[in-house]
Amino acid sequence: MPTGIERAFPPKFVWGAATAAYQIEGAIDTDGRTPSIWDTFSHTPGRVRSDDNGDIACDHYNRYLEDVALMRDLGLDSYRFSLSWPRITPQVDANALGPVNQKGIDFYSRLVDALLDAGIDPVITLYHWDLPQALEDAGGWPSRTTAERFGEYAAVAAEHLGDRVATFVTLNEPWCSAYLGYASGVHAPGRTDPAAALAAVHHLNLAHGLAVQAIRQQAPTAKVGVTLNLASVRPQTLLDRDTAAARRVDGLQNRVFLDPMLDGHYPDDIIDETGSVTDWSFVRDGDLDAICQPLDTIGVNYYSPTVVRGYDGDGPREESDGHGDGAASAWPASDDIEFPRQPGPYTVMGWSIDPRGLTELLLRVHRQAPGVDLLVTENGAAFDDLVDGEGRVDDPMRVEYLSRHIAAVGDAIEAGAPVRGYFVWSLLDNFEWAYGYTKRFGIVYVDYASQRRVPKTSARWYSDLIARQVRRRG
Ligand code: PNW
């Protein structure tokens, strides 16, 4: 999208950036916070690259005012961040939420006020993977009580912040929580049990539904949504075994969340095809009614396309789906499916770059949820960024990645998808989960030794793009 002929986005289109609590905050035992599953996981040797952890991260807990000032300088309309559940109700267990930690609420309250003062609209994600460890000890997401406690926690968050926060997102990428946490084990809590992963899928869905109801009650004017890492799944060829594989992956990645949330049922084909793993008896009467709540928005996170093929038993298996090198598969009941490596270019995650996948995905979600607004709640890329002799970080590949994906959002809007905003992942370089600090997704570079923030070329570019779009609004 060369700047000269840049298209106009809708006047109310929201330009933002996103982060998540465990990836940036640090201050893990400050003001009453208790451990989450990511504290435990990252402190277990061998789980995270270089045994990195989130103990300090970007020290955002202590530097949030500087970070808000940075966002104001960039001209962001909106900032998507997540709440750390173990800051809000640090004593939660399977039976009870426990007392609200006022100091935890106060931190987010100050952050929200600072954002509003800077003219930046806060979007709060209630859960971006940092489950209180005590709930994992009681069974974690495969256990129903986790969903029940999540509904209560959502009520607390909406009660204390819903007077100033216009948009709440219940869950971030339940696919990752369920399958990477409980099937491949490359994310916390690191379990490798496909039956547990499918039980986790259901209880994450239930948690979402209970949270939507709680937020509606506490903050009736707030907009409520969920963020899913959906995939636009393409079969490698039109052979039956490849189209069947694509249907299964679409089911396990997309429909197993979208169908219950939007239409109140689980996909029959997926229940059948996972029959060797689980009988789905964790789904109780009334659960689907609880899960299927009207939504104001669906958040789509997109990085890379998904191409699948049915394994025909010939030749070496291809397992380069970018879901980690764990020996266990993320995909329950799918030993017959593989993810052939796609042609480059790639980001340093090894994820192939294909903006058209974002257009396809937005249109696919719009077809299934025609009345629901869409947000791109994450999109971005990791590259090997370096500070040069002048103290600058020049990242032309990220500029190229972002501009082409933003153009792809424009294409989806032109084709009829009601996309209301776009959030770059991420505002800051941060703790990239199993990859530790080795992968930098930020438009702002973080020097972890000094905690100095250096806006990269991409930050300046994004800021200029926003300024041009704001001028067009008149
Ligand atoms: C998302 N996968 O994570 C998360 O929402 C962010 O917290 C994260 O930093 C960002 O994308 C970049 O990774 C994902 O293996 C992690 O497919 C892994 C996968 C997808 C998304």
UniProtKB/TrEMBL annotation:
Residues 311-324 have a biased composition (Basic and acidic residues). Signal peptide: none annotated. GO terms for molecular function: beta-glucosidase activity. Keywords: Carbohydrate metabolism, Cellulose degradation, Glycosidase, Hydrolase, Polysaccharide degradation. The keyword RNA-binding does not apply. InterPro entries: GH (IPR017853), GH_1_N_CS (IPR033132), Glyco_hydro_1 (IPR001360), Glyco_hydro_1_AS (IPR018120), Glyco_hydro_1_beta-glucosidase (IPR017736). Gene3D superfamilies: Glycosidases. Residues 311-336 are annotated as: Disordered. Its EC number is 3.2.1.21. It catalyses: Hydrolysis of terminal, non-reducing beta-D-glucosyl residues with release of beta-D-glucose. Pfam families: Glyco_hydro_1 (PF00232). GO terms for cellular component: cytosol. The active site is at E173, E378. GO terms for biological process: cellulose catabolic process. Substrate binds at Q23, H128, N172, Y303, W425, E432, W433. Belongs to the glycosyl hydrolase 1 family. This is Beta-glucosidase. It comes from Solicola gregarius.
